[in-house]
Amino acid sequence: SPDGTVLHASVGGFGSLRPRPVIVEDSPYSPDVNTLSWLGTSYNYVELQWRGTGLSQGALSTTGPADQRDLSAFLGWTCRQPWSSGKLGYYGFSASAIVAYNTMHLPMPCVKAAALMAGSVDLYRDLLDIGGIPNLAAGAYVEAAIGAPTLLASGQRLHDDPASSPETLLGYPRAAVDVLSHTTEDAFWRQRTFRGDRDRIPILADTSF
User: Fold this and answer.
1) Of 113, 139, 163, 188, which residue is the least packed, with the fewest Cβ within 10 Å?
2) CA 50 to chain CA centroid, nearest Å
3) Max CA-CA distance within the chain?
4) 8 A C-beta contact, residue 13 and residue 85
């Protein structure tokens, strides 16, 4: 990533990994690339794991500036790979849709279209404080759903990259403190909100919060 954090991703495709358009997802739920294989044989697939989740280094950023820079840089990296035709599609569901919305004010290299399912353009108003009513149960559920696969991967992390474990594990309570300490839609939340579509990417948006 731009700040040197090493992120984990998996790449797959039908048969030999020859150049094809690539479907990208950036998810904190530590999915395997096979979760995108239903999209068919005409594409290659890439699943990126957010910093501080799964086997990626760093601390959880909750779709903040670090996650946004990661996604922008990763799309550029993906576009240049020998198994990429130079045309990318972005797929997101829930968290992986939200981070895409939040990143669109930055360059989204080579992305021709996006399908963003159950996403939100305003994390504070749409999910965590709906109509002024705190909805912290949703935030707690998401953090648990993100943390569980990271915990399951801790043995592999300790084997492959033990130095990254403390920062990653401490990232979860820090993220919870951040959410609980920002009780109005302040600068913290405005950094985690849709701020425009720099590249005018066509979006299929299906359902929402």
Assistant:
1) 163
2) 5
3) 52
4) no
Using left for φ > 0, alpha for ψ between -120 and 50, and beta otherwise, residue 72 falls in: alpha
Contact in structure between 75 and 1 (CB atoms under 8 Å): no
In sign, the C-alpha dihedral spanning 185, 140, 205, 126 is negative
How far out from the chain centre does Cα 205 lie?
Answer: 17
Per-residue b or e along 140-178, where b marks 16 or more CB atoms closer than 10 Å to that residue's CB: eebbeebbebbeebeeebeeeeeebeebbbebbeebbee
Task: Write the DSSP string, 72-88.
Answer: HHHHHHHHTSTTEEEEE
Look at residue 209 in the predicted model and tell me its pLDDT. Answer: 57
Long-range contacts of 125-128 (CB under 8 A, 24+ apart): 125/185, 126/208, 126/209, 127/209, 128/179
16/3 Cα distance (integer angstroms): 33
Q: How far is residue 72's CA from residue 195's CA, in Å, rounded to a whole number?
A: 14
- Rounded to whole angstroms, the Cα distance separating 62 from 104 reads 16
Q: Which residues fall within 8 angstroms of residue 151, CB to CB, at 6 or more apart?
A: none
Q: What is the pLDDT of residues 61-118, one digit of tens each?
A: 999 999 999 999 999 999 999 999 999 999 999 999 999 999 999 999 999 999 999 9
